[in-house]
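Progress against Task 2.4 (sequence-to-structure conversion) is shown through the following example record, which the project officer requested during the mid-term review.
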Amino acid sequence: MSIEDQVFKKIKNYKRGKIFFPANFSKLGSEDAIHQALKRLTEKGILVRIAHGIYLYPKTDSELGILYPPIDEIAKAIAKRDKARIIPTGAQALNLLGLSTQVPMKVVYLTDGAQRNISIGNQSIKFKKTSPRNLATKGEISGLIIQALREIGKDNASADQLRIIHEILQKEDPANVRNDAGLAPAWISRIMSKELEN
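C-alpha cells generated for the chain above:
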C-alpha cells in the first residue's frame, strides 16, 4: 500500500472536521513522503490545507461549502501538537465568555511554547510567549475571566458584564477561582473574591 493510501486510510478513521499535522503520520514514512501524500490528498479535495503544515478533513454543507472549525479549536490542536499551554487573551477571551459578540480577526494566545503567527483565511493566530505565572491558572473559566477583565480595564466593566461574569463563575470550581484570584492583579482578584463570597 502506498504512503498516500496509508495516510488516507488513517484519515478515514476520524470524523470530518478533524485537524491533522504531518507529525500525525510520521510512523508511515519519511517527512518528504508524508508531505507529498498530504499534498496529493489536498489536490484531490480529500483534505483542505488551512495553513502551512495544518490540514483539515473537511465537513461540508450544501449551501455553505466547507465548514471550518472555530479558530479556538485550531489553536488548541496546535498547542496539543506542540505540547504547549495556551490561554486566549483580549477580544478572543471576551468573545468566548459571551462578553462581546465581536469576532476578532487577529486572535492572540499567551503560550509557553514557540512564539509564532499563523494566518488562517482572513484571520490570524498569534502565539505570544509569556511567563509561567500567566499560565498557572487552574480553571479554564477563571483563567479566561482574568484575561477578559484585563482587556476591559480597571473600573471599566459595566454592570451587565459583571452580571455575566458572576453567572459564568458559578460554573467554575470555587477552589480554582480562589487559586486563580491569587494569580490575578489586585483589582481583578477583588472582583473574583467578591464572587466567591456571594
